[in-house]
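Hi everyone, sorry if this is the wrong subforum. Our group has a chain we'd like a structural model of before ordering constructs, and none of us has done structure prediction before. Sequence below.
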Amino acid sequence: MKGEDNSNILEQIETYQKVVKNNPQDIWSLIRLGYTYTRASKYREAVEAYKQALQLDPSMYLAHYGLGYSYMKYKRINEAINSFQKALEYNPNYIQAHYRLGYIACEQQRYEDAVFHLTRLVELEEKHAKGYFCLGKSYNSLERWDDAVTALKKAIELNSGFEFAWYQLSVAYAGKKQYQQAMETLRKVVEINPNLEYIYDQMGRIYLKMRRVKEAIEMHKRAVEIAPKLAYLWKNLGVAYLRGNKYWEAIASLNKSLDINKNNGTSHYYLGCSYQNLGEKALSEKHFRETLRLLPNHQKAKLLLNELEPVKTITAYIKPDESLTGDSGIDGKLQLLRKKWKGNTP
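Answer:
Right subforum, don't worry. Here is the predicted structure as tokens:
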């Protein structure tokens, strides 16, 4: 909040505090006090104000909603859910309660619950762009691609600059294997904001599905240029290089991912694949074993590890970066690549 706005809100809080002190039975002033507390990020105080209001009238759905919102901002999610549900008990058509319950369910990956509340929401309010967006995102997670397309197109119709809706629409098209439409959708996002790393990452993944590896690599390189501190972007760039049989570049990129997040089992898996393609069995074994330590149910790592012939080199005690120090005898080109990428760009 800006200083001037903050000062204004604090004045409102003082005003409502005085009103409530003079008349503790004034439920509307208690609700307004709770609301101004939330605007000032004073969520604990907001909770108390809404609770006082509910002591006066337990059926006041606005107070239940306000209490839920305060709990949500206070990171007490289960209590927030209970309060939003209580609001709907007293007003089954309260739009905001449906939205919050749908949003939380989507975030908690309870997608069927999300669809229930968000469908009800857009039935009640046809111009709720965020509601359609969350509904489309939930449909995507359920792989109900056609439903997702319908919901997300509605969100974009209501807000043409809704970049997240455009992105989710591309996910739906990709799910339908309509890759050209997915790419056209992503280009719309680039027109809105050309500096979103996840858009280029999505473009790269779609290009891989289209078997256009060169374009995929370029898109993933663009993603890491924008956000070089995100491990998953380096991992995805490494995968693109691997698909293009550029094993050294893949190894350098995947090691960059592990520099940022050493516990990324998937990066270890693709490193194992890269080293296997170079005939480096010891290093391949090392990374497949590390994959299984971090992701015990990784079936592909188990299969490839079993296929490796027994090797004499004991890899269990190799430190994470020891394979890159020169002891392996294969570090020449890799060291040059790591030096080239020291500044976080490929």
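For your construct planning: The radius of gyration is 26 Å. DSSP finds 19 helices and no strands in the chain.
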